[in-house]
Design brief:
Blueprint: E1 2-6, H1 13-22, H2 27-36, E2 45-51, E3 54-62, E4 75-81, H3 90-104, E5 109-114, E6 126-132, E7 138-145, H4 155-167, E8 173-175, H5 176-184, E9 193-199, H6 203-211, E10 216-217, E11 227-231, E12 237-245, E13 251-254, E14 264-268, E15 271-275, H7 278-283, H8 292-305
Parallel strand pairs: 9-12
Antiparallel strand pairs: 1-2, 2-3, 3-4, 5-7, 6-7, 8-9, 10-11, 11-12, 12-13, 14-15
Helix pairs in contact: 1-2, 5-8
Length: 321
Amino acid sequence: MEIRALTGDDILWTKLADYANACSWKAGAELSEKMKNHHFSGWERVFVALSGNEIVGYCTLSKTDCIPNLPYTPYIGFIFVCETFRGNRISEKLCACAAEYAKSIGFQNVYLISDHVNLYEKYGFTKINEQLAPWGAMETIFTRPTEPKKPEMTAQDAVELIRLFEQNGIEICVDGGWGVDALLGTQTRKHDDLDIALPHKFVPKLREILESRGFKDIPRDDTRECNFVLGDSRGRLVDIHSYTFDENGKHIFGVAYEPHQLTGRGTIEGYPVKCIPPATAVEFHTGYAIDENDYRDVKALCERFGIPLPKDYTKFEKPQG
């Protein structure tokens, strides 16, 4: 999949205008007319999504949109994906490319007008206004920064999500950085995400709950059915690790936890949570390329719970005297 930014002298300009005119969306004819009448100028662009040599979608970035006299610019508009290519996140990629281009020419935010509900929120947009369109319908105005928000999972966010899972009968165990801080009973550093372990049978319900709140799949090279990340427009990430034990407690599917590795107890902002136990937390911080964050986590656990510091971490220790 390739996405290209077009200007009027591009060889694909006329081809895209003809495609838009013939597509199933009635607004395509309006875009086609604008392109043929040289409506786009200066920094404005039309973006085309290509699968090989085939046009499969498009969008625009322009100074104005369908509702006049608004104090916003620039707008992403005319977002369309061919029916046979839908479900491949092409509209999200088009928006991302338009936002990246807007950033390159100095804009900090992009805007979008739509009547769709719970669609563009999944692409990082938030609602800022509602306005009456010229055709008499109320339309929502969305915005998103051109610079993607850095992920952060605050203590309040973590507790909010853990409570949400518990209220819906989903059994989770906190792993990762928040698992360490839960054991220590205090937040020692910022966290990008909330790592959770849960029986695989709860995954469909977990997905349903999070997706209804604007979370979506975050693509990663190591994504699996039992290990994936969901994120929302606020930059909150939930790293899901699922497993299945048989009736005897033997691991038969998913991330290779053992029952005794899910028996810890801790607190996040005073809220009691189930988490991995101290020895397991230290064990899980070995066997890969460790960094200063890992060292601080493991050092704190070892000192608090009387666990010997693993050999992997001795290189971070400063010589005495």
